[in-house]
Fold Arsenite methyltransferase.
Amino acid sequence: MSVTAKEYLGPCDISCLECCRVLDLGCGSGRDCYMLSQLVGEKGHVTGIDMTEDQVRNTSTTTQRFGYKKPNVNFVQGYIEALAEAGLEEKSYDIIISNCVVNLSPDKASVLREAYRVLKDGGELYFSDVYSDARIPEDLKANKVLWGECLSGVLWWEDLIRLAEEVGFCKPRLVTASIITVGNKELEKLLGNYKFVSATYRLFKLPKGSEKKSCLVMYNGEITGVEESFEFDGQYTFKVDKEMEVDGDVASILSNSRFSGEFTFQRQGLKTPEKKRMLGQTQGNFFINSFVFGSLYFSQISARSKSDTDKVAQ
Ligand SMILES: C[S@@+](CC[C@H](N)C(=O)[O-])C[C@H]1O[C@@H](n2cnc3c(N)ncnc32)[C@H](O)[C@@H]1O
């Protein structure tokens, strides 16, 4: 088996994984952990955490399949709201991933707080989940079927942005989004006018006091698998050897994360006047709204088929 980062988590890249320590929140059967174990390589490590212990997970798979001397994957039973109790140490991971799990947690703030705690400075939480277009009321949250379908437990997307920044992450970067069609008349009736979107955001933990100033960056083309063009998020795609102006947030992320060695940075020669750059940053904020993004790209998925796929994958 050979996987690339692109095949793994959708159209954008969670690139630059070699030698990284990765944590998968709510890993289920561990499918993503095994894929990641190849992407991080023998010197990297992948930990999967899940509250259920149903799956007997064979950690020696990576030695057999990829020829590693010792397994580079381990699984922990525990709650994603309490990573310390599960023995996961502060600043011990470069990347945290998660797919369709946070919406199932009754305490999202603790999940984000714990993720922030175990990430190293410059690390990121790269995760896909479902979001609503308004805060879901308590009576819908109490409906077990809607909760189990990954619908009524979801965060209003604006609450994700607020919570992430409260915890200390820099402003979330939206990677991709697809509007969800519920596809079940009964559930649709219960849900009324609430709309849902499946979105992938990347949340970076930057060192305290990191400077946020626009600059010119140039991608050196050395990230494996994306040598010609590196899709960082829905707003920025970097072409090799081409200068590009980035706003202060992105400049700070690129220069303080595992991507710092992949770019050259230059403050001089910015072509856009400061006022216009501020405007550009406002337009950038527009890209943070997963509903706008999902509608712009007319991409749709069905909630039913999505959760069915998840169940099959377990
Ligand atoms: C929809 S499945 C997704 C599994 C996997 N991420 C995937 O993409 O196939 C949700 C998983 O999250 C786990 N989970 C839900 N809430 C959790 C929590 N609070 N702590 C740990 N695991 C949790 C469940 O046990 C289940 O395995």
Remarks:
- The chain has two domains: 8-209+286-313, 215-285.
- The pocket of S-adenosylmethionine is lined by residues 26-28, 31, 50-52, 79-81, 99-101, 104-105, 310, 313 (CB under 6 Å).
- The CA atoms of residues 177 and 295 lie 9 Å apart.
